[in-house]
């Protein structure tokens, strides 16, 4: 396909929480959406809701070759295995994209594996839910959120533009473009580090009955500690060096704050807090421009 | 006063975000509420809303002796200074309480300073807003939240029960009782540590334009990094030993997770994440029992 239009037929591979949210957004805006996914019950659920027109638990040429645009919403290693096994089924000039949370280790491998007449343009929808499964899918999480396209020199301008248009159609507030390496450094800080912190907060103090005394701040910092352990362990390992660097930067700054406290340096602590307050204002959620 | 009843007249000292939220909740339930606060504009604002019947910027015997119950919603050192300067104005048998976020260093000092015919029963409403000022007050934050009473052996059963009844009237979902020391250890973990983490997240990486790529998880973990630096530096210093211990426990666990990542131990990481997921479920917000 050359561009993303009203007639683009979309196949979603993997109807979990993210694939389901794509299906909701796209079918809700009048696009034709089909899916391939493991469980028949998820297909039945989505067909009942009217968010897909057809679905299959088998990878067949009929389904794969139907699509102009294929969205992979799978665990990273499953995505790569799928390409290795089934890429012969794509129609020539199919465009494929993904939702994978790390890029450097995925994009180059998929592009190297892929047939020359099929193009892979990577994207990361930065919105999610802490629960897994199509029944938790919800495209309202895309409102006000960021959609990042991560092309390589192998990508065509048409494919890059099609991926950005997909982000706009899904309802994202801001569409950006980064290299896979820039993306992974950024995601190590903004997403992976925060998940490591949330998990650590839940495991560093096992005092019983603590939950009886909690306030909203602790709940906010640990919401994402309910975590899909299989997916996140894979994402962390695929971005190990960048994440280790961000963990070390965090620890060094945390130790500096600890020393200010230990030394009774109130003014030093207040300075850091004023800097944090000013910088945090930049991160308030943007309203979508109409 | 012996007990907290419909006729209890309540004086709030310090009409900021927490004092204002008390005024909203109590006046909304038909209680008579007055205040003493620094700024006339805050009194005008609250009178216009009908959440106080009178207010004064001066500490006068007329206002102080009117009250059956006095709620101090001041910075800790200002609270102690106020008691030193003005306690002669209380009517005998006045009950006083507070909203201070640390207890060990406050409760003993105030009880030691205080006249024998006035009783101080400490309490901590575990709900708040990240913005300061009466215009941000909002008693809906009490719904589903925890209210902790921290008596000492000097307190009477009547005063403890009156403080608990205050928490119930304010709309808190769960009323608990802890010693000041238990409270401070718990708060070091559940509240102070989380604020240190949020502040550190905002200051450990100064890459520009990061805000263009952020997702909800980073926003959640740093919401409380917009922080009242004067108040929190004071609270941290008043609870220094307990907070340092919690920071050290967090750092040790964070380092353990970092080592699992560095060693490529996916199963080790997944185990920690499964433990975090299970434990986090305990901390979901309770619905208030009707």
Describe this structure in words.
- Two copies of one chain form a homodimer.
- Chain A has 290 residues and is α/β, with parallel strands linked by helices.
- The first copy, chain A, has two domains: 9-178, 3-Layer(aba) Sandwich (Rossmann fold); 183-281, 6-phosphogluconate dehydrogenase C-terminal like domain (6-phosphogluconate dehydrogenase C-terminal fold, Orthogonal Bundle).
- Chain A has eleven helices and nine strands.
- Chain A has helices spanning 17-28, 40-49, 61-66, 76-86, 104-113, 157-170, 180-203, 216-222, 229-238, 240-262, 266-281; strands at residues 9-13, 32-36, 54-56, 69-72, 95-98, 119-120, 123-126, 146-149, 174-177.
- In chain A, the strands form two sheets. Chain A has a six-stranded parallel sheet.
- In chain A, strand 2, helix 2 (40-49) and strand 3 form a beta-alpha-beta unit.
- In chain A, helix 4 (76-86) runs parallel beside helix 5 and helix 7 (180-203) packs across helix 10 (240-262).
- The two termini of chain A are 28 Å apart.
- The model of chain A has no long low-confidence stretch (mean pLDDT 94).
- CATH topology of the largest domain in chain A, anyone? Rossmann fold
Fraction of residues in H or I helices of chain A: 40-55%
- How far from one another are the termini of chain A? 28 Å
Task: Give me the CATH superfamily of the largest domain in chain A.
Answer: NAD(P)-binding Rossmann-like Domain
CATH architecture of the largest domain in chain A: 3-Layer(aba) Sandwich
Q: What is the radius of gyration of chain A computed over CA atoms, rounded to a whole number of angstroms?
A: 21 Å
Q: Give the oligomer, counting copies of the same chain as homo and different chains as hetero.
A: homodimer
Q: Count up the domains of chain A.
A: 2
List the uncertain runs of chain A. Answer: none
Report the strand count of chain A.
9
What's the helix count of chain A?
Answer: 11
SSE order of chain A: EHEHEHEHEHEEEHEHHHHH
């Amino acid at each position: 396909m050359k561009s993303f239009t009203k007639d683009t037929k979309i196949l979603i591979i993997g109807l979990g929480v993210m694939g389901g949210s794509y299906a909701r957004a796209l079918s809700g805006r009048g696009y034709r959406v089909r899916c391939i996914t493991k469980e028949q019950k998820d297909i039945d659920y989505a067909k009942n809701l009217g968010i897909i027109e057809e679905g299959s638990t088998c990878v067949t040429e009929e389904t794969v070759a139907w699509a102009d645009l294929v969205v992979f919403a799978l665990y990273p290693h499953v995505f790569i295995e799928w390409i290795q096994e089934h890429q012969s089924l794509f129609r020539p000039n199919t465009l494929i994209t993904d939702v994978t949370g790390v890029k450097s280790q995925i994009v180059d491998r998929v592009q190297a594996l892929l047939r020359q007449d099929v193009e892979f343009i990577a994207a990361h929808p930065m919105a999610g839910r802490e629960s897994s499964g199509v029944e938790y899918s919800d495209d309202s999480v895309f409102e006000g959120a960021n959609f990042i396209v991560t092309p390589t020199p192998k990508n065509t301008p048409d494919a890059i533009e099609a991926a950005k248009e997909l982000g706009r159609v899904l309802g994202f507030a801001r569409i950006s473009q980064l290299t896979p390496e820039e993306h992974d450094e950024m995601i190590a800080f903004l997403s992976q580090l925060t998940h490591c912190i949330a998990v650590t907060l839940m495991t560093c103090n096992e005092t019983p009955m603590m939950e009886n005394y909690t306030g909203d701040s602790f709940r906010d910092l640990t919401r994402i500690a309910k975590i899909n352990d299989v997916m996140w362990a894979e994402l962390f390992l695929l971005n190990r060096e960048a994440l280790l660097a961000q963990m070390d930067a965090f620890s060094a700054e945390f130790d500096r704050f600890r020393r200010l406290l230990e030394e009774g340096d109130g003014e030093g602590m207040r300075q850091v807090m004023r800097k944090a307050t000013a910088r945090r204002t930049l991160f308030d959620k943007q309203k979508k421009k109409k």
